[in-house]
Amino acid sequence: MPPRMREDVPLDMPEPEGSIVPADPQAIEAEMRPVAKRLAALLRVTPAEAHWRAAEVGRFSLRQEWRTPDTPCLEFVPRKTAEGVALGLLVDISGSMIKRMQEVIKALIAFILTCQELEDVALEIVAFPGDVHILEYRDRGNARAYERAKALTAGLRAGGETPLECYLPGSIKRLSERPEPRKLLLVIHDGAPDDPEKCEEQLRRPPVPVWGLFLTETEDDPWIEVMREIFWGKLIVGPASRLDRKLANILKGLRM
User: Fold this and answer.
1) Most buried residue, 70, 74, 119, 185, by most Cβ within 10 Å?
2) Is the Cα torsion angle 139, 141, 142, 145 positive or negative in sign?
3) Given CA atoms 236, 241, 243, 244 in this order, what sign does their dihedral have?
């Protein structure tokens, strides 16, 4: 396994703990609102999809999202469950994320704007290190909570280590307790955790689906194989610049 430090992070860069200082999100929100509208359009069910839904409910293929991110694959299974989606986002704000932080902030705010209008989606966003709960599942339909979430997201600051193993158990437990029939925990990150062996063991047989969303600009990044081992093959790969669309694609599949 290669060393944990990414090559694109200066070795002398200070790594204070990641933090969140609430900030005014108005400028970012104004910039990302058109993006949120495009994401909302992406989430609309087409007539063909509506016809399929009459008899079946789609199950999103996350492996296909990794292969062809702009053309999600829907695998159909018999309709046996009620409507409703619980989506957890566990977001890495460690020091290595400093170069991608602004793109991640914009993508998250666009996604929050999109999900705020969806009655069937319970969303949790937790940033680590720091265990800051930007948004909780119970906040669905709470306009004030979503406004606070945008302010917290705008104030994200990268720094510190990557103790993913400390935050996975809590995120998995909270998601497993949700009543929604369709659930997914997505770990957004750009490098290996402090204790990869422990994370790999925690992800061996989780009670809910857990996938990694590895942010990288190159398809031959050596970290891809490392992270695929940790997440037991359940890994989506792509640049931070396309994070907003990837999140929308995944959510559309979960809602189908």
Assistant:
1) 185
2) positive
3) negative
What's residue 34's pLDDT? 87
Could you read off the pLDDT of 34-84 as tens digits, one per residue? 888 888 887 765 655 544 444 444 444 554 544 444 444 434 333 444 479
Secondary-structure breakdown of the chain: helix, strand, coil percentages, each rounded to the nearest 5: 45, 20, 35
- What does the angle CA 199 – CA 149 – CA 136 come to, to the nearest 5 degrees? 55
140 contacts: CB under 8 Å, gap ≥ 6:
119, 121, 122, 123
* Helix boundaries (H) for the chain: 26-43, 47-53, 62-67, 101-115, 143-154, 164-176, 196-202, 223-230, 243-255
What's the rounded Cα separation, in Å, for the pair 203 and 167?
12
193-241 tens-digit pLDDT: 999 999 999 999 999 999 999 999 988 898 899 999 999 999 999 999 9
How far, in Å, CA of 201 to CA of 190, rounded? Answer: 20
